[in-house]
Amino acid sequence: MSGRSDNHNRQEQNRRRNLPGGTSSDRSRQYSPDRSGRRRGGSGNGSYENPYVNLTPYERYLREKKRKRAGRIIFWVILIEAICLLVGAFVLLMPKEDPELDDLVNKKVKFEYQTETDRVVTYGLAVPRPNIDVQLLDVNEWSRPGIKVDNIDKIVVHYLGNPETTAQQNHDYFQSLKNLQNTYMSANYVVGTTGEIIQCVPDGEVAWASNEANYYSISIENCHEDSSGKLTDSTYWSDVHLVAYLSEKYGLGRDDIIRHYDVTGKICPKWYVEHPDEWEQFKDDVMTYRQECADAQRNMIDELLHARDNDETEDDVLRKYLDSLNFETDAQLETSDQDLWEELKKRAEKAAE
After folding, report:
1. Which site among 36, 86, 132, 346 is 20 to 30 Å from 228 CA-CA?
2. Is 109 exposed, middle or buried (0-12, 13-18, 19+ CB in 10 A)?
3. Euclidean distance between CA atoms 331 and 274, whole angstroms
4. Which long-range contacts (CB under 8 A, 24 or more apart) does 30-33 make?
């Protein structure tokens, strides 16, 4: 039994020696801990670190699995950071938004894409320009200061208060104020008792007529035959046509047509302050005339378009339309956009070549 036990012990020792790292006694002889607690080789051939020296195979497997997992995590973190950096660089290098460029790109060229009817209706004034005698005052402090208005938001109607005077006489009085230098007075327009219209001050300049409204309005003085301030029929309808023309030209509505009375409470124009129902009728007549002109304009253009022959081009229709403006009509067309009007004429001339 003794020999058999000894033999068994020797086999167990040999088995242990064949395990990685040898027996505990062998490991003790081969490695010794240095001062930092790490084991170093004792052969004298230099030192090295072996992280698995004291681990079983299963512990080594777990350690290796953990190391690989950490490596994969690091790889994905680096990859994600790299992608973020690339995306950030792409965003930084992208062209910045330019509002002006966007407006230019999105801008619609109305002249190219609108129908002929839409072009003329859009750019042309339906209300014909009345016969206006332009006699601008000399620039001076007392009647035409030459100050630009802030904007044109109102049309102010007045009466002169000096019966039986003509539009020319009142214009000449405004002109004389630069020498008299005793009062500030003027108007953009004066309408006479026979319907004549004289322009004294340009639309875009201040006329001394409507107090604080001078800086955002056009003023119209009306002559009258007696102290009641009632207008003659000729004055009335010239006034209607002038107000209709100016209100359409500057995009104003019915409520933008006011009396001097509505600005300061002054009894001016006297007849319309004392007869408010007739003032409402005056504004109705202005808007009715504007609508009649708009209808006449559209009908004229529609007739031209509907009469278009199969072999006619758009330029042929345009030329016929422009030619039609040379004749007297109830609603002669014109445009406030001179540049566009010149372009229309060029197109017609080209079509006529």
Report:
1. 132
2. exposed
3. 33
4. none
Encode pLDDT of 137-176 as tens digits: 999 999 999 999 989 999 999 999 999 999 999 999 999 9
Q: Which of 322, 325, 328, 324 minimizes the C-alpha distance to 346?
A: 322
CB 98 within 8 A of CB 215: no
pLDDT digits (tens, 9 = 90+) for 100-119: 656 555 544 333 334 444 44
Which residue has 């070549």 as its token pair? 353
How far is the first Cα of the chain from the last one, in angstroms, to the nearest whole number? 136
Q: What are phi and psi of 299, to 5 degrees?
A: -65, -40
| The pair of three-digit structure tokens given for residue 2, joined into one six-digit string | 């003794």
Average pLDDT of the chain is 76
Residue spans of alpha helices (H) in 307-337 = 314-324
What's the CA gap between 219 and 203, in Å, rounded? 9
How far, in Å, CA of 132 to CA of 152, rounded? 19
Strands 124-125 and 334-335: antiparallel
Alpha-carbon Rg of the chain, whole angstroms? 49
CA distance 293 to 287: 10
| Backbone torsions φ then ψ of 223, nearest 5 degrees | -80, 160
CA gap 205, 215 in Å, rounded: 8
140 in Cβ contact with 176 (< 8 Å) = no
Cβ-count burial 19-57 (b if 16+ within 10 Å, e if not): eebeeeeeeeeebeeeeeeebbeeeeeeeeeeeeeebee
Helix, coil or strand: residue 273:
helix
The structure's pTM equals 0.57
Side-chain-facing half-sphere of 242: CA atoms under 13 Å: 28
- Relative orientation angle of helices 116-123 and 314-324, to the nearest 10 degrees: 40
